[in-house]
Amino acid sequence: MNTPFFPCAGSRALHAPTRREFVYGLGASLGSVALTSLLAAESQGPLAPKAQQVPAKAKRCIFLMMEGGPSHIDTFDPKPMLEKLHLKEFVREGKQKSAMESGKRYYVKSPFKFAHHGQSGAWMSEPWKHLSTVADDLCFFRGCQVDSVNHPTAMYQMNCGNRFGGDPAIGAWVTYGLGSVNQDLPGFVVLPEISYPQGGSANWSNGYLPAQFQGTPLRPKGSPILDLEPPTGISADHQRANLDLLAQLNNKHAEAHPWHDELKARMHNYELAFRMQTQVPETLDLSKEDVKTKAMYGIGSDATDAFGRKCLLARKLMEKGVRFVQLYAGTWDSHDYIERAHGNLIHQVDQPIAALIKDLKQRGLLDDTLIVWCGEFGRTPDNGVRGGTAYGRDHNPKAMTIWLAGGGCKAGHTIGSTDDRGMEAVEEVHHVRNLHITLLRLLGLDDNKLTFYHAGRFKQLSQFGGQVIEKLIA
Amino acid sequence: MIAKAILLTLLASASLHAEDAEALFVRRVWPLFQEKCLACHGNDEKKIKGGYDMRTQESAMKGGESEKKSIIPGRPEDSPLYLASTRQHTDDWEPMPPKEADKLYAEQLGWIKTWIAGGAPWPDENKRSTIAKANAEKWSAEDGIVVKTSGALSPEWASRRYKPEGLWAYQPVKKPVVPAGVHPIDALLAVKAPAPATDARTFIRRATFDLTGLPPTPEEITAFEKEYSQDQAPSIQHLIDRLLDSPHYGERMARHWLDVTRYADSSGFANDYERGNAWRYRDYVVRSFSADKPYDQFIKEQIAGDETLVGDAGTPASRSGLIAGRSARITPNSELLIATGFLRMGPWELTGMEVAKVARQRFLDDVTNSVGETFLGHSLQCARCHDHKFDPVPTHDYYSIQACFGTTQLVERPAPFLPVENTTGFEEKKYLEARQTEHMAMLARLDDKMLANAVKWYADKNIDRSAWDKAVTSARAFIAGGGKMKKGRSFTGVFETARAALQKQNIPEDQYPPKLVGFEPEDYGNERVARKGLERLKWELERYEAFAFSVYDGRTPQVVSVYQPIRIPQDRMTMGELEQTAILGGGDPFSPTRPVKPGALSVLGSVEFPDAIEGRRTALADWIASKDNPLTTRVIVNRLWLWHFGQAIAGNPNNFGSTGKKPTHPELLDWLAATLVEKKWSIKELHRIIMTSAAYQRSSALKEDSTLSHDEAEKSYAVFKPRRLMAEEMRDAMLSITGELNPTLGGIPNRPEINIEVAMQPRQVMGTFAAAWVPNAQPSQRHRRSLYALKIRGVRDPFMEVFNEPAPDFSCEAREVSTVTPQVFSLFNGQASYDRALALAHRVLKEKTPDAITRIFQLTYGRAPSADEKTACTAHWQAMEKKQSGRTFTKSSPPLAVKRDAVEENTGEKFSFQEKLPAYADFVPDLQPADVDAHTRALADVCLVLLNSNEFAYLY
């Protein structure tokens, strides 16, 4: 073993932060005159933009996380065989099966009609009324498999590469690898649902990477960032007055401890936070967007408003130089009544996603923005007793559909396939680690080089390495 | 011999004698190929990458898909194998091995180059072994040590060599001799140009935070300063004794210990169920430190306490190991059961969606690694799938340790409350019962609704419903007679009972109503919330029951899911599977290979433990807690050192292997380890020794004429390294300063106020939403020490989180300290800070001190303000009073219900429901701005600034 790149190891490592690491953005904007002395020192901070490791088109990423596990069979992977098998009963047993998968089962046909769309003839189910108009921009991948059959562990694996949580999320890795263009905003932003997904904020954790790379959730309700504002009634100049006294006391203390670097970093943070109080709400304000744009995203219509806002905000954040935005929509965990549940869910995201793709395209941003659409797993062609008449589906780690758009992906193609019932991927089958490696590659990162020394070894998103799925790359 | 070694490395391109090149191949090149290349180029014939097979001379020479000869004897610079390895010819040859982390070092490249230059000879296996044998002694003297371990997966691994410096931790502890007249620590540190001792005020602040996690009071500071000025050494002794006797000492040490062991009050993952009894383990740790329980005993209790019960608990008493020579220290049975909660600290659950064996294996892997990290300074997980890459830990050892837990089963076990346990506050149970009633009522309403819908369903389908009506009537009678209800904690509905009856009669499914018939989206949601809510309450209600979060020995029962606390089965020794631990191929529980017996780390000498169902863990615990185990004692004294100095002697307290940092002062580490045993494993004695050293008493400021950089000075202990307060210290110190802190020890977890948005944040758990975080009603209940705050894996107090409280998924060997902007939002804008500032201002004005500003400085910094500080603060107070005079306040009342908006799982439609928050009904808020005048509020602005200042946040 050679000397580690980073002086830390162990589970939660003893890690003496360098001076540089103290100042972190949620931005290290350095407009204030009082802070110019820090400028030179900090322009190379941990979030400073870094060169790609391998040449690639995509510079940033929007990750659409359909949590709960969307059914490939009812969205992008039609299974006519299930028409024939509909409600046919069978029994599944075995030591390696969970209680959910075992026992009396019924096949369930999709309630949706499918049609070819675009020049590429991509299969999409009927509810995708808007997304089908950009079918040729999408690259469908039907060969992905994950290890876990339950939500939080599968979510952790999809997001962080490890089933058990605690590891850095892909957004953290990408920001660690590429830095961020805008030092005034976090490099990795998360737009969660009002209710957090199973597994909670560990889904956007920095894990063992430095805290700067943690996903910052911008909350859809209330203060976008916790305690961004002081309690009601405390005005800006009230706060400014308190800050001035704080600076006075801290300066005196710093004079007595001139060797203590951390003091300056901490003082700097107070000024930065004060400026962010106005900057962040400005960035998040969608009221100034024109009516047409908002309508395009479905903002203002009941079903599509929430996800439409997230998609529009994602586009704005991309334009502002944020590296990685992850959007959550859920929950796609339709064990019962799939027609109603999936029908509604597709309706909620369909128009906003199509608008996002079109909008990025018309702004010339689609080429270098990678869009990923996926859940944590797919769903089974069959259901247990309780869905026998209600037509739902259970979790399926062996088959799912993921699609990519923009950012150098092989748009207009469908890669891989599943068996005739949609139970298992059979062609171009890849473990999710290969998907991760491919996403990194599309973003100009090499999984084998994007490593961090922790707990006795160099760790990486894919855990143990793997291969690029070349067919997904244009 | 040495000359020869140098020759081998340096003569990169010079030609060698044929036999030298052969020897180089055997000694260096072939092992290197095996380590770095063969995984992809030969070991697995089916998966050979790039068509290049390196198993034989012929195929290795031939090359792969490039169809170029890979090795050209005599010409390394033309040999692709060498060029690819250099990583300098990426245009033609992809760097090999591909991973940056695996790249070859200059020395290794030199071997390949020299070997090719020497003709690239490739002796066959027989000859290789002859050459190796002939040179064995010589090479071993030159190259490092072969370490004896047992059960390696391959002979190559078993005979690999280790640099002696990477094996320091396995050597017996050797207590160095230190000169008389000097404190042994100072003698062994041998600091050059040390800073002088710090002043009394700084020292008491340092020592008090270190041993109690709290600030000294102004009165304590004054008293100590006086005593110190009269007679320095005794005053320090006296102070240390006083602090070690403080009940808060145990709390402080528990915080450290629980970081390592990953304490939380919930299970994590999909359900994140509450672990109602985990708090008793937390308090056990506090008690153990406070009582100065010998560390060896502390180890044994946590690993095997349940195997050493005395009396009637049904398990053989094999306590001799525990209490030999210490009959006065018999631990009560409840305590022994509680102690083993340690084994279950990791996140764990078993849902119906997971394969039971996989979940069981997760526990086994977790506990194996946890014991390794906590007590042995070894992250054992690296050896789960393969022999350890860097340390002499074969996979065999991993599973030997795991075998010690092969009969360990998870359970919530009856354990009567002990007189020392705090069992107050159980009346809060009524709030949970109110929620229970609420859920039951909802299910009853929905039951009625389904019954009505069923009638409609029959009408719509035009099906005869006489069978149904009959079933409903008998279902009503069944339920009126008590049904399946257990103490009102589950619900059985008439509809479901009737439906099940028809199902049993084999009536076709389309002839009776479907489950949840006629439900609207909100009905689905409400049903789920209520049903799952009842399930979750079972876990929460466990808090007040005399059960221990514990383990038992037995066969592994067949269980497919765990949705309520587990009770010990009657037939633990006979029913279920007697696990045969085996080396698992790829760590997969469905791929057992060679069976293994209970054992330990063979690098420390081969041991085999009894493999009866009971007693395996006792054997392991005795092995760990032996004075002769060089890892155990070094690991704990290294942690203690870290907890005092903010830097460990061996820089990775959870990793004493070759990839961990080597000890900066190995002799000191050994001296401390040996001394711990001499002092009968007394942790308090170690504190006394450490804190009476000059190193601990040193100033943080460099000696004026020192030529060291500050960094160097800190590392060499020439100065004392300052540190920022930990998240918990920061909160506890604020509560202490304001006089609000409730110093009660132990008991059920409390719920302080956390950021209200996080408290009310809807959070998905399996099939439903977790309940909101509702703070305790009384301020005194909320203002307990942070140690006692309910720790739910899925909801973290954002204040704690931003100030680097570790998440409880991984063991935390040392807190990180980052300075990030959200800390400012939390500490400068957060409601809690405003509350503390107001409470401090109120306290000081209520005391009617002649000089409020001075008093605030004394409370916050432990000193009086300077003249200009006082002027500035006074001026600020006056200026802010003007601002504050204009403000008006409306009193907000606590929310008694919260509206939850969500997407309903069955229908994908938006759905909202009211979550009642009965515990808010009796809520008494902290002091509010509206309760005081502008004069007080303005002083609170001064207080807020001081609580945010660096002087408060840092400890020197």
What does this structure look like?
The complex is a heterodimer of chains A (474) and B (956). The radius of gyration of chain A is 24 Å and the shape is globular. Chain A has 11 helices and 21 strands. In chain A, helix 6 runs antiparallel to helix 7 and helix 9 (305-319) runs parallel beside helix 10 (338-362). Chain A has a single domain, classed as Alkaline Phosphatase, subunit A (3-Layer(aba) Sandwich), CATH 3.40.720. With 474 residues, chain A is of the alpha/beta class. In chain A, the strands form 7 sheets. Chain A has an 8-stranded mixed β-sheet. Chain A has a 3-stranded antiparallel β-sheet with strand order 2-3-13, with no helix packed on it. In chain A, strands 4-5 form a two-stranded antiparallel ribbon. Helices cover 29% and strands 16% of the residues of chain A. In chain A, strand 4 and strand 5 (122-125) form a beta hairpin. Chain B folds into 4 domains: 2-143; 293-417 and 546-624, no CATH class; 426-542; 724-955, no CATH class. In chain B, 51% of the residues are buried. Chain B has 956 residues and is mostly helical. In chain B, helix 17 crosses helix 18 (395-403). Chain B is globular and about 95 Å long. Chains A and B meet through helix 4, helix 6, helix 7 and helix 10 of A and helix 17, strand 8, helix 33, helix 36 and strand 10 of B.
Can you summarize the main beta sheet of chain A? Answer: 8 strands, mixed
Largest sheet of chain B: 2 strands, antiparallel
Total beta strand runs of chain A:
21
User: DSSP helix count of chain A?
Assistant: 11
Summary of the model, kept short:
The complex is a heterodimer of chains A (474) and B (956). Chain A is an alpha/beta fold and 474 residues long.
Features of this protein?
heterodimer, A: 474 residues, alpha/beta, Alkaline Phosphatase, subunit A, 8-stranded mixed β-sheet, 3-stranded antiparallel β-sheet, 11 helices, 21 strands, B: 956 residues, mainly alpha, 4 domains, two-stranded antiparallel ribbon, 38 helices, 12 strands, 46% helix, 5% strand, disordered N terminus
